[in-house]
Amino acid sequence: MSEQENEPQQGLDEKQKRQKDEVGNVEKLSEELEELPPQLKRFVQATLSMQRISSSSLVSPIQEKINEQHISRILDIVEKDDERAFADTESARKYTIFTIIIFLVFFGSLTIFLVNKDIAVYQEILRIIIIFGGGFGSGFGYKGYLEKRRK
Fold first, then answer.
1. Cα gap 42→34, rounded to integer Å
2. Where is this region: Disordered (predicted)?
3. What pLDDT digit, counting tens, does each position of 23-59 carry?
């Protein structure tokens, strides 16, 4: 446990040393900058300040605290999420197949019983089913259109 505590401390010590070296280099550069023309001096100072900002923001504090245990937990969570997504997709497929089978059984039984007895009633029921299906399909298509438009 003491080794694990020492590793982050050593990393912090090295980081502090690098920052002190950078401060010393900046002081040396500031003396050299005094001899440059004003336009070039401003350009070099802007470049140096941009380098300081970009180098200090490359490593976030959270990244320094992540270890192997965190990574393995994240991978486990992602794996479970993938399994759940697969199960959801599988259940949605089963539901769709079950709904189609029910509709086909209903349509087949309707055809068998009404075609031979009363064609006019069969045509009227078929027309209503087609109108309902068209309205349902257009509503479903419109919903999909709106969802794609939001993205």
1. 11
2. 1-32
3. 555 556 566 667 777 777 777 777 777 766 555 555 6
